[in-house]
Amino acid sequence: MKNFLRKLLWLPFHLFFIRFYSQKTRTTSILNYSLIIRPSVFHPRYIFSSKFFGEFIGRLQLQNKIVLDMGTGSGIQGIIAAAKGANV
Q: What is the pLDDT of residue 66?
């Protein structure tokens, strides 16, 4: 029962926290990059996909490749691709 209640309450609490937390401009650090996150931007620290795809992109050979970073929110994937030598 305790586990059921935890799962039931997790999503509303999480959504409330993200809405409350994302009302101000914040500075965050992810994958050794420091970012300024504006209120309307997808926050990379609280959504797992930013770190997951950032780590994946960091393992690719992107020297002199062209990468389009569109709609990713903070742009962390494009920043990592540029650091690996891609033209973003």
A: 95
Distance separating alpha carbons of residues 63 and 51, to the nearest angstrom: 21
Helices 76-83 and 48-58 cross at an angle (nearest 10°) of 10
Pick the closest to residue 43 from 67, 14, 21 (CA basis).
21
Residue 15 above 80 pLDDT?
Answer: no
Confidence of residue 55 (pLDDT cuts 50, 70, 90): very high
Residue 34: pLDDT band by 50, 70, 90 thresholds? very high
CA-wise closest residue to 54 among 19, 29, 79: 79
- Residues 72 and 50: their CA atoms lie apart, in Å, by 8
Structure-token pair, residue 77:
């994937």
Beta bridge partners, 71, equal: none
First vs last C-alpha separation in the chain: 49
